[in-house]
Automatic annotation (TrEMBL):
Membrane topology: Lipid-anchor
UniProt-recorded name of the protein: Methionine ABC transporter substrate-binding protein
Sorted UniProt keywords: Lipoprotein, Membrane, Palmitate, Signal
SUPFAM superfamilies: Periplasmic binding protein-like II (SSF53850)
PANTHER family on file: D-METHIONINE-BINDING LIPOPROTEIN METQ, METHIONINE-BINDING LIPOPROTEIN METQ
Record-stated family: Belongs to the NlpA lipoprotein family.
Top-level taxon in the UniProt lineage: Bacteria
Localization terms from the record: Membrane
Length: 282
């Protein structure tokens, strides 16, 4: 073999090795570096599990592994975020986060919108809001994160008026109650059970579906408009993590068309994907 031939073969080999090295350690790998993010959510059901499977697959394509940590108390996910036990959470709306930051002097910030739970009112006794009687009994949640939303739905239906000085009202903030409605405050998971006994109830869609009822049985559905913005659920993290690549990948994985399609058309929970660019409900 001539020296020229040997030189050519050696040169080709060097180029090939360099190409392999570039493919292994070049920009593509850097752009898809593997990261892990722990996300806190409230414990759900099979529908929730399926939604997070889709989100986790989306994240995996971006080189992000999502670890999901579930909680059973609404005070836990933000506390875990502040302490560093989780890197982000997805369970609360704007109003709840604002109140939390004020009362806990925390630096939690929203980084992406997710869903809106359209407020609904149910009754086994009456077919229309206008039929709710004087002194009627209304059951609502005793949980801070859901009671304010329920009262806003009742105001939207024209049954009560609330103080315009508060964004997350309680029963004490009712300023007008012409029908003298009597409020029965109960644990959120007990509201469905009260339907045969009360005139009206504000119940989260997940509990309606879980009881075998249809969300379409509601006698009133709150319109989605500017007044409902505070009730939009969000992805949240701390200020020092909001610009991290892992958090950005998580937001992208959640705000995907396949996730919106599942939420709007397959979950059966009455939730609506509301982030900018989300496909409209079919």
């Amino acid at each position: 073999m001539s020296k020229t031939t040997k030189w050519l073969i050696g040169g080709v080999a060097i180029v090939a090795i360099a190409g392999i090295a570039y493919a292994s350690f070049g920009p593509n790998t850097v752009g898809k570096k593997k990261e892990t993010l722990t996300v806190g959510i409230m414990a759900g059901d099979k529908r929730t599990d399926e939604q997070w499977k889709i989100i986790k697959r989306n994240a995996q394509k971006e080189g992000l592994t999502l670890k999901i940590k579930t909680f059973t108390d609404y005070t836990q996910p933000n506390a875990a975020l502040s302490s560093g036990d989780v890197d982000a959470n997805a369970f609360q709306h704007y109003i709840f986060l604002s109140d939390w930051n004020k009362s806990h002097k925390s630096n939690i910030v929203p980084v992406g919108e997710t869903i809106l739970v359209a407020g609904r009112l149910y009754s086994d006794k009456h077919k229309a809001i206008k039929n709710i009687p004087q002194n009627g009994i209304v059951s609502i949640s005793n949980s801070k994160i859901t009671q304010g939303r329920s009262l806003l739905v009742l105001q939207s239906a024209g049954l009560i008026k609330l103080s315009d000085k508060v964004k997350d009202p309680t029963i004490k903030d009712i300023t007008e109650n012409k029908k003298n409605l009597q409020f029965k405050q109960l644990a959120t998971d007990q509201l469905v059970r009260t339907l045969p006994e009360v005139d009206l109830s504000s119940i989260d869609p997940s509990f309606i579906v879980g009881s075998g009822r249809s969300i379409k049985s509601a006698i009133y559905v709150q319109p989605v408009d500017k007044s409902t913005h505070g009730g939009i659920n969000i992805i949240a993290t701390t200020k020092n993590k909001k610009n991290s690549s892992a958090v950005k990948k998580f937001v992208k994985a959640y705000q995907s068309n396949n996730v919106a399609n599942y939420i709007d058309n397959k979950s059966g929970t009455g939730e609506i994907a509301v982030w900018q660019g989300a496909p409209k409900v079919r």
